[in-house]
Amino acid sequence: MRKKINSKYIKIKDIILGNPDKSAIIIIVASFVFIFILSLFRFVLYDERLYLHETSLIAKLLGSGVWFGDYAVGVHGFLFKLPVAVLFLLSGPSVFIATFFHVILATISAYIFYKILRNNLNLRGWAILGLILFVTNYSFISWSITFHRETPVIFALLLFIKSLLDKKSNFFLSLTLLLILDAKEYIFYVLVPTLTLWILFIELQNKKILISKKLLNLIQKLFVLFIPSLIYLSLSFFTSLIPINMFNASLLGLTEDSISYQLKHISTSNYATREPAISFKQLELLKDIDGINKVQSVIVRSVQFMLGYTEKLFYLSNFSFQSIPFVILIPSIIFSIIMFLKWKKEFNYHFIFLSIFLWEFMGIYFIKISHQRYLYPVIPILLIFFIYFLKNLYENNIKDKQLKYIFVILSILILIFAIYPNNNFFKKIFELIASIIFLSQIYLYSRLKKRIFIVFSLLSISIFTLFVTLVASAFNNQLYNSIIWGNHGETCKISELFQPKDIIYVNGTGIENNKWMYMIKFFRQDPSLEKEWHWVLVNNLPKKKLLKEFCCQNTFVGDEWNNISEFKKFIKNNNIEKIVMVKSTIPSVLFYNQELIDQLMVQNWLNLDDVKSLKNKEVYIFINNGNSIDEKR
After folding, report:
1. Where are the membrane-spanning stretches (predicted)?
2. How many percent of the chain have pLDDT more than 70?
3. CA angle, 464 as apex, 463 and 468 as ends, to 5°?
4. Domain shared by 372 and 316, yes or no
5. What are the beta bridge partners of residue 556?
6. What is the pTM of this model?
7. Which residue of 116, 237, 256, 495 has the fewest CB atoms within a 10 Å radius of its CB?
8. Do 443 and 576 fall into the same domain?
């Protein structure tokens, strides 16, 4: 029996390693098919509704012969929205087209990642295993089938890293940095100090050149690397050529609140999310106890500070199989140090960038309010160092004592994670079991030296992450919502009930982070987008006077009103012709103000025009007849 298993393992190994490029193509195609099938069960969530709306407006403006540089379409950039907007000119607003574009970008990203492992780092067969880990990662699958900015930025970042390791010219690298700035500006701002430190480190290795010359070389290289991005930013702030990204304005202190918004995100009371950390809540109570002097208060505050940031490690979605688990994180960080020293010794200075970027990114991640989604750009780097860990283990380059230290650190972290009070009990059990299975396989390999345990350890991680992805989809995310409400809540069907010229009101879902009724604005190509999204620009910034809105709003969604009289005034002030009230037929779910539908039906200024039954909801369509008589009692 053992011989049969070993012979099958050898055959599989020969097939994969015999032609790794062919194996990689098969894996990438399989990944493409998998995420494409998942994308068919789409349900727009969170901020992507804004990015889709912006893309729809770009298409509408281009179709009208108007350049979009002065319009509110630049949140997290516009370059990766532009191809989709052009396609919208032919198809009309389509979530499928937008999603498919991201599926293609994600697939290309997977290929670039493989080429980095295979060609640049010369990891050969290990590149296949790294690719499998990447395409089965929860973040890769989850964000690839959305229109969030995570997919464009992972594409741009991997393209930049591939170009850097290929030793492309600084000018070419500058163009890839521009793509990163456009896709997700915060990654660009992380790269600024990373590149500065990396170039400085390389310059300092040359002992024959004067310090002044080294500093001059540093400035020259940084200038070439960042000049396209500086031009891009200048054009967005001072001209009509490029739309402004309000996040750039906030990060650079060009809004009325300057950088106070950004400073809030490094507040010591908010570590993992916007909610105060548990240690903060508990230790905050000690300050009010009588008898505590100033010294004791400082000690409490210091402990509170340290524990708060430590807590971030144990917030469920951060370092788990829902993102990057401890069993990958800790070996990766350790090997980022080991490989840094090795590359330095071998004069592989371009590879050193990977270590510096990882350290810089993780440092900022811990200081700033952040969550699982923000980790996605650094996951490929973590996986690279994790592969180095397994490769060295496989080649017996890790001493038993070193492996023991890794096991101790992981055991402590996993134990604390298991008792951390804010995490779901069943999720904690899963994480605990999955981590123990992985560690047991690594332990068995270290004792028995059977290399099949290395393969099993990698496959187990992929299986666990795939399992988490499917469970999350089925019980919480897109698949779950599309099964309950239909794709996008059938907002496309609701939109088709009206003519483009109709001015309508639609009640929202009233569900936090699930405002899918907003998608009716997208499908109706409503042009209304706030000129200064989320922030107010300073008065002396030229772009402020250039900003425009495209006429005219045709869809109002979920605007707050508390009674019929207030609602009637809102309808009159906005010249709304048709009122759409969507009612949930699921008893446990109530959409915004659906309980007032019966009252609306007896208003003399409204006529009930139609009632449509859709998936787990009913759509009531009222017509404003213009009657100004007071409502009936």
Report:
1. 24-45, 57-79, 85-114, 126-145, 186-202, 222-244, 319-341, 348-367, 373-390, 402-420, 426-445, 452-475
2. 87
3. 115
4. yes
5. 505
6. 0.90
7. 256
8. no
